[in-house]
Amino acid sequence: MKTVVLVGSGYSHLYCLNQLQKERHPDTNWVLISNSKYQYNSDMSAGYIEGIYAVEECRVDLEQLCQRSKASLVEGTILSIDPHQQVILTDQGHIQSYDIISFNIGSKNTLDFVDGLKYKSEVIKPHHLFPEKFDVLREGENPVIIGDSIEGIEIGLSILAWKKKHQKAEPNVTFIHSASLEEAGSKTSRKISSFAQKKGLQWIFSKVRSVGETFVYTEDDQEIPFSHLIDLGEPSAPKLFKSSPLKVDDKGFLLTHPTLQSVSKENVFGVGSCSSIMKHPDTSRNEGNGVKQGPFLWENIHHLIEGKTLTSYKPGIHNLSIMSAGDKEGFLTYGKYSSYGKWQWKLKNFFNRRLIAKYN
Questions:
Q1: What pTM does this model have?
Q2: How far, in Å, CA of 267 to CA of 264, rounded?
Q3: How far apart (Å, rounded) are the C-alpha atoms in residues 133 and 297?
Q4: Do residues 178 and 194 share a domain?
Q5: Which of 77, 187, 303, 334 sits at 20 to 30 Å (Cα–Cα) from 149?
């Protein structure tokens, strides 16, 4: 009997659990280890902030999914891994042995690159934290979002839309960034900046120098007041891998072959934003790749068990991306193409609801 352990409830692992209901290797025992009983779809967080989705609509019930899949659910966070003895330890004191293990635990945001930031910024990763954090954030008098990502603009515009519906005072929401949006080209970035500011988002192009008790200080000497602060800076690797014998890239992410196997141990897999594919180091760390890697992970785990040749995963050149722009509007990009309007949000809503329904 082979024990397959899935650490984290990202979409590649949800895919495997779903497949277990359709086909199952007779000599395998599957275990999911997750820090929550729910997996939240972060792509629906903007809709949740705006009040479009209830919290139950944004999450997958892992207990029910594991019951249907005849897999064991262990709640906890992994503290350490011994790839030689093939055991892991959780923060609850649970020791789990494995024959094959896969990590799909996401990334965190770096908070120590600006003086004072880690003491004031709200933490929304892991994603199961986002409902309670965003409930507080959207009601703040002067919420400020720092980051160079589409996600930061989504959050800003969704807070703005919620405030316009629920508060009489003129809303004041600020987005601070110091570089071009990492997911978009310069032309697309200008389009996004234009409609975001027309909607009333305070747009500041500057680098944050430090964070005080109630002000953000920038390098061009601006002082921006805040009631609540959220930073969506560069993703950082889980500490788990750095403290293990497994090889990591220069940023600390688990280093894998295109087959999604660790370059250190063939029975260790890494998928989603916690890993870095050796031949594709520039792969964007977003949930889209986690979803696409699911079928490859499922197939390769079984091929490893059966002694067959594994299949390589190759990221696509372009990913379809739809940013929520508030008021049930969306901004769609695919390669150099972009468009903005109501149908774009409807498409995003359709994709997200279908994804959640697939696993519930």
A1: 0.91
A2: 9
A3: 32
A4: yes
A5: 77
Closest CA to 283 of 317, 233, 333: 317
Tell me what pLDDT residue 120 has: 73
DSSP string covering 274-317: GEEETT-TT---SHHHHHHHHHHHHHHHHHHHHTPPPPPP---S
In a domain, 283, yes or no: yes
Looking up residue 95, the CATH number of its domain turns out to be: 3.50.50.60
Tell me the mean pLDDT in the region 112-130.
Answer: 68
Mean pLDDT, the chain, as a whole number?
A: 89
**Do 200 and 171 form a contact (C-beta atoms < 8 A)?**
yes
Tens of pLDDT, residue by residue over 294-340, are 999 999 999 999 999 999 998 876 778 899 999 999 999 888 888 99
Q: Which two tokens stand for residue 77?
A: 């966070």
Give the domain-ending residue among 199, 219, 234.
234
On whether residue 243 sits in a domain, the answer given is yes
Burial 290-312 (b: 16+ CB within 10 A, else e): bbbbbebbbbbbbebbeeeebee
Q: 343 in a domain, yes or no?
A: no
pLDDT category at 169 given cuts 50, 70, 90 is confident
- Write down which residue in 306, 325, 352 finishes a domain: 306
Residues facing 224 on adjacent strands:
216
Place of tokens 């696409």: 292
Three-state secondary structure readout of 307-352: CCCCCCCCCCCCCCEEEECCCCCEEEEECCEEEEEHHHHHHHHHHH
The tokens of 33 are what?
């280890």
Q: For 355, which DSSP code?
A: H
Name which residue leads in pLDDT, 159 or 168: 159
Domain that residue 168 falls in: 110-234
